[in-house]
Fold Sucrose-phosphate synthase.
Amino acid sequence: MAGNDWINSYLEAILDVGPGIDEAKSSLLLRERGHFSPTRYFVEEVITGFDETDLHRSWVRAAATRGPKERNTRLENMCWRIWNLARKKKQLEGEEVQRKANRRLERERGRKEATADMSEDLSEGEKGDLPSDVSAHGDSVNGRMPRISSVDTMENLVNQLKEKKLYIVLISLHGLMRGENMELGRDSDTGGQVKYVVELARALATMPGVYRVDLLTRQVSAPDVDWSYAEPTEMLSPRTTENSMQELGESSGAYIIRLPFGPKDKYVPKELLWPYIPEFVDNALSHIRQMSKVLGEQIGGGEPVWPVAIHGHYADAGDSAALLSGALNVPMLFTGHSLGRDKLEQLLKQGRQSRDDINTTYKIMRRIEAEELSLDASEIVITSTRQEIEEQWRLYDGFDPVLERKLRARIKRGVSCHGRFMPRMVVIPPGMEFHHIVPHEGDMDGDMERNDENPISPDPPIWSEIMRFFSNPRKPMILALARPDPKKNITTLVKAFGECRPLRELANLTLIMGNRDDIDEMSGTNAVVLLSILKLIDKYDLYGQVAYPKHHKQHEVPDIYRLAAKTKGVFINPAFIEPFGLTLIEAAAHGLPIVATKNGGPVDIHRVLDNGLLVDPHDQQSIADALLKLVSDKQLWARCRHNGLKNIHLFSWPAHCKTYLSRIAMCKPRQPQWQRNDVAFENPQPNSPGDSLRDIQDLSLNLKISLDGEKNEGTSLDVDDSADSKSKLENAVLKLTKGAIGGAVKADQNIGGSKSHAMRMKKYIFVIAVECDSISDIPEIIGAIMEAAGRENSMGFILSTSLSISDVHSLLISGSISPLDFDAFICNSGSDLYYPSSNSEEGPGLPFMVDLDYQSHIDYRWGGEGLRRTLVRWANSVNEKQGQIVAEDESRSTAHCYSFKVKDPALVPPVKELRKLMRIQALRCHVIYCQTGTTLNVIPVLASRAQALRYLYIRWGMELSNVVVFAGECGDTDYEGLLGGVHKTVILKGIGNNSIKLHSNRSYPLEHVLAFDNPNIVQAQGHCNEDIRASLHKLGVIKG
């Protein structure tokens, strides 16, 4: 507290007021607390827990009052308010403790139930290893994923890739992205992640075997940002060609691809991007499809070259990558960078905001759900440190280190995991290019003498910009490089420097805090931090000892490190928590010893480099002592510098990329099944052994049906020659659809013709995805939509529903609607895809044909029978508490949809609770309440009605921008997925209102994910022909 005069005065005032207060008129605070020490309370409970700026403002108001009596009353009221804040904080902390206790119980219960299913005795093997090399798991016992246990193994895997020509897609959506002159620190979205993903793309493109890398981001055409962010494509020139061994091609290299989505002419912060994610996914799908064809012509012999992996960075890109991975059936990788659950816990600990307030500000629950989905979909989760796995990822429902070890032990012993899966956690520290760095060997005085003798090599301009602040620029420089964000803890650093006289006498302090023109134009939080720092500089009279330049360019950052090294200075990162700490590696590469926070990634960096000291970021004295020790002990400084330079190669980009590619090589290759390209690795081992159908997931039937239902002869593309595999899949599908499609599908039947051509030629495709309160109302709405379309040949129709194909057939009969009026039927909430058939000689079944390619397309991580048993057990537990309200509906269940009847929707847990239960048990699925809550459908995790439309785009070329989706005002719990994207949407007023109750207990409100200002969404005033035509006219679909 030394030097905090206002705090000392405040304490004195509290002490003074104590004896003067009449016991009978004591405050609520004194009455409730009894023997209360205001001083001790203030020190222990307030100073450490609340923002000083707010307290100081209150103190100024109190000190301005006149008269002892008035002043005493004011101070007492202040004391009571502070106590009330502390009580609220403790209440929030108590609620959080209870929530964590409940979470532990849920997790233990989930482990027990999962272990009960996996009944084999693996007590010895289940002890497992540490969660540092986590495998993805499945049911098959035919293969086991080898672990990368040595450098030789990794080199062998990388060598296998040298003859390949791989296409890799990276996604990073928020912030301002460009290859040169990055505006790092411009705002909270444009930071270390932007630099990392750009350098990763650049480095991967130079690796042998990698042909092209696309970094997908948002195109920004706003007037307040540079024009370069509106350029659709930017090629990233390689920093070095020493590792580039492959033959260059027309489209090879690394590229930033900027795709438009969200509001035009506006730069949007990441918290507000969620409603526009589907639009990005559709545009990215179009780019990848087009690029795959281009690469196919160049290097694929005419066959499309699909991405070998899609890598999402941060939660928003993880959500996008999961949808793209599901639409394309390619492996997904994920890097969180910073995690929502960890941030939520940190904010709750501060006690300044409730959970609802935090969710409103940061859209934190939507972010957490995106991270959970990324765990569901990812083959590999890449982390920078082990701490991220053990302390942050374990907070998520979808990852449990204990259950992971059990699953890994079973995989090693070749025992079924009963449909349970865990993503593979891999620690790969970020890389850096060192070829251009020449560590400085001289000192400040020697360099100044040489510059006097040799004026031809002037100092970089940024040096003079920094040194102009110092009265003695020859002193060692303590360098901090971070934006003025509270979590970066720069204010504690300035206090430590200001209150340590020996440190001030020995060193200068340089603070590189991004770029600014005017403090008043900065974001509120950053402006507050910067003003606090300026006040501290004034308070401690640090003028001539602290530099805080307003501007610097990205290419000048190495010069700043060099200046600090010349002065024999120290680099410090005092952040409260640092996920990794790339600046620490950069500083070490320039020969700077480091002082860093002991929380997070710096621990792993220090373990490798051994080039500095770790400190408690909350301990101001510890920070000052560490800095003083390094700048005063020249032998220690030289030893730390030497160690850093000696070991820094372990963090190079080539080393990073070798490990990265070796992990991709471990993934089981996946891509669209009807057009396979030989990109498989030699002797591949399956990364995710699947369930009972996994061994036949490569089957391709190539169903191609013309719009009029005519069956034409066609040629099969790469059809699997295994008759047994085909038969297994066909029999499984037919069995679980209860013969609904009769004999309409034959495993040796190739249905070709004009489906692809006809889908592309349709002017518009009307997707009827209306969920009525009464199923019997659906035929009427179908008829009205078809009548509004005028039954033109240029219009196509798709029915998208939660109903089974048998129910659909009954509905069509009741409404006298022919199945041949439709081009496709998306049934069971998106788990089944059918086409109409006009051949009446195919047997007694219904007039539909199932797309078996779609079945294998969505089969990824499907839990099969293990999932069904868990759902039945859940239903029984609900029935024990509430009576017989949930029952399995075998008549509507199919191979990829387990359906349950719900008697009373008000008595069953909300969808988020059932989804959490499945994730805790490592079961990956998509849980949907349908038909006003009377039906529960559980389908594959990456299947949905929206994803089925993207499949039709990839499979048949159906342009998504020509799709018009008809939906009600509300619908099933997958309702939000139907409204976003590049397609047009007509919302039918008065339809589906009874489904609103299904959305009343969501993790996040619909307005956080729906763009209500989207011009592609219109509302019809009713569902009659005239209302529908008026809406279609607004959208420009029909004239007149």
Observations:
- The domain at 462-651 is CATH 3.40.50.2000 (Rossmann fold).
- The two ends are 76 Å apart (CA to CA).
- The CA atoms of residues 667 and 734 lie 31 Å apart.
- The chain has 35 helices and 26 strands.
